[in-house]
Amino acid sequence: MSAVVAAVAVVGALSVVNLLLCIGIVRRLREHTEILNTQLGDSGQNRRPAPMYATGQRIAEFTATTVDGADLSRALMTGTTMVGFFTPGCSPCKERMPLFIEQAANHDRDQVLAVVAGTPDASAEYVAKLAPVARVVRENDNGPVAAAFGVDGFPSFALVDADGLVLASGSKLGALAIPVPA
How far apart are CA 173 and CA 44, in angstroms? Predict the structure, then answer.
C-alpha cells in the first residue's frame, strides 16, 4: 500500500511541476504576442521602415551597366519604371520573383529594371530568368543602384517616374498597385 501512496505522490508532484511550467510558457507567449503586436501593429501592418526609399522620395543619381552591356543611369529611365531588387539565397526573393516576371511581361522591357545583388556565379540563375523581361543589372551587395534606391532589404520593389520620384515601394509587389499598360 505504501508503494501506491508513494507513486500517487510522485505523479501528483510531477503534475504540479508540469502545470507551473505550462503557466510560465503561456505568460511568455503572451509577452511575445504583445511585443509582436507593438512592432507589427494590431492590424498586421508592418511598421518597420520600408526596405528602400518610401513613396515621395527621389532616388539618387547612379550609373551602371546592364548584363547586356548597355549603359544605365537615372537619366536614362524614362516613363514609369518597375524596379525589383533580388539576391540569391533569399527565400522571399525566390518566392516573389515569378510574380515580378509575370508583371514585367506585361510591360515594355525598357520600363522594367531588375537588380541582382551577388557574385556572378551565385546570381546567374536569377539573371537568366529576369533578362527576357527586364533590363538586368548585376552588382555586388550595396552596389551603386541599390545605394541610389536606398535598398536596405531584399526583395524590394518600386515604381519610379521619369524624374526619379518613387511612386510606390515595398517588399511585396501588391503594395505597388502596378498599372497594366493599355
Answer: 17
